[in-house]
Amino acid sequence: MSDMNFDEDLSGEGKKEDKPKLIIDGKRLDGRDFEELRPIKIEAGILKRADGSCYLEMGRNRVVAAVYGPREVHPRHLQDPSRAVVRYRYNMAPFSVEERKRPGPDRRSVEISKVSREAYEPVIMKELFPRSCIDIFVEVLQADAGTRTACLNAATVALVDAGIPMKGLITSVAVAKVDGKLVLDPMKEEDNYGEADVPFAFLIRNGKIESIALVQMDGMMTIDEMKKAIEMAKKGAMQIYELQREAIMKKYHAEDIEE
Amino acid sequence: MISNSRRIVLPGDLLSTNPKTAGYGTFVENGKVYAKIMGLMDKTENMVKVIPLKGRYIPSPGDVVIGVVREVVSNGWNVDINSPYSAFLPISEKPETKGRKLNDVLEMDDSIIAKVVGIDPKMKVTLTMKDRVCRPIRFGRIVAINPTRVPRVIGKKGSMIKLLKGELGIQIIVGQNGLIWISGDRKKVDIAEEAIYIIEREAHTEGLTDRITEFIKKRKEAGIENE
User: Taking CB atoms and an 8 Å limit, are B38 and A206 in contact across chains?
Assistant: First the structure.
């Protein structure tokens, strides 16, 4: 996604064709601080037919997650006699980016599906449901950098909403390096023109970060920067974790008050 | 509203530091008890468990379930019991089959009330119909609810079911898999169906029995006025 035209944000800035300035007067292009997340909105249980579902907005990202299962495995040969099979499908809608994306799985979405599934596999208690499968679907409706982190956050809420046994919650956030500075939760411009983009996912249990479930890196960073990035991501993840909890509490509390 | 002893917990929440108290919906790690599912925490002095709010039906022996025959095979019937695992009803477990063709006894798409007798380690579920409550369903209505709400429909020692049966004079059999068979006067069945949906929706609230009593009374009066 290197093809993009800048609108009003940059029109006044020095016209460097290849790499625009991403930090102006100590602030990011959208006015955020370096350690500030984009606004997040989470809603649980929005799909009637799915066992669990979630709609999530993270800045201009919009994703929907649906969880089905545990249910029978089709095709049959995939089933595992000792544990449940977890399947994760990440998909971008053709209209989610500026230039139409060819529908269907491609190299990128297959990779994201794989790493996301591997983040969930140790967290979901698969051994409780032998010979069954748990299907997680996430659809990106609108993309604005960091869609895999948004999808992981949405999938967690959907899994909890489906009542799937888990050891904790997965919360995900990215850190990027732009203009030599580390920034939390990069948006599209920072992702496209920054020097590095590192998505993290953490396993959070009882309000404490237990382990890292996913790390990827695009670009380069020094070891010290990486250490700082982890600390930044942890802080950001804790904020998202609270929002995820809130979304579920809201749904089940609403059921209470309703009458 | 939820009091503090019955708050909603999410997977990974710490419930207790005494591993001996771990009950349903929990797991123990490093001597601490955590919730493994989302649900209501139910904590007493010697037991902490999580009452699930969502989830699929996992069969266990002795459960009465309502199923639909999906396939007739040479030695019995494959039955869909609204669970990740399909069940099998062998001929030997179905009375009144002597000298009759399998298709005449139970056909595809027939609904049955059966009992789970066993689950082998491969999660193959075996059913039986050698029990007083077991029968093929030829009339009445089947209502589907979330299996985790079934205990509330039954109530403490069957109080809710007794209430519905007593107030409306209808037959009800609750399958543990979230399917409920109701039979009787059509208008009364309508009321029962609505009442069950209310119970499902408000399963984790207090004073439910009283509200249902009131609801049935109101509906019955409305019904009489219309006639």
Answer: no
Largest CA distance in chain B: 66
Q: pLDDT per residue over B39-91, tens digit each? A: 999 888 889 999 999 999 999 999 999 999 999 999 999 999 999 999 999 99
ipTM of the complex, rounded to two decimals:
0.87
Residues B103, B80 share a domain = yes
Is B145 found in the same domain as B133? no
B59, part of any domain: no
Chains A, B: CB contacts under 8 A, how many? 97
Task: Give yes or no for A50 touching B (CB within 8 A).
Answer: no
Print the domain residue range for B17: 4-52
Could you tell me if residue B199 is inside a domain?
Answer: yes
Indicate which CATH number applies to the domain containing B72: 2.40.50.140
Cβ pair B78, B108 in contact under 8 A? no
Is residue B58, in this structure, part of any structural domain at all? no
Cβ within 8 Å, pair B55-A259: no
Domain boundary among B84, B106, B137: B137
Q: Is the link from the previous residue into A70 a cis peptide, with omega within 30 of 0?
A: yes
- Minimum Cα–Cα distance from A247: chain B residue: B10
CB contact under 8 A, A206 and B12: yes
CB B85 within 8 A of CB B123: yes
Domains of chain A: 30-257 (3.30.230.70)
Give the one of B11, B58, B121 whose C-beta lies nearest to A160's C-beta: B11
Please write the tens of the pLDDT for every residue from B162-180.
Answer: 999 988 999 999 999 999 9
Q: Does A82 touch chain B (CB under 8 A)?
A: no
Chain A residues in contact with B15 (beta carbon < 8 A): none
Give the distance from residue A41's alpha carbon to the nearest chain B alpha carbon, in angstroms. 19
DSSP state of B17: S
- Domains in chain B, number: 3
Q: Which residue of A has its CA nearest to B52?
A: A163
Tokens of B201: 């929706």
Nearest-angstrom CA–CA distance, B55 and B61: 19
**CB pair distance less than 8 Å for A256 and B202:** yes
Q: In whole angstroms, give the CA distance from residue B88 to residue A199.
A: 47
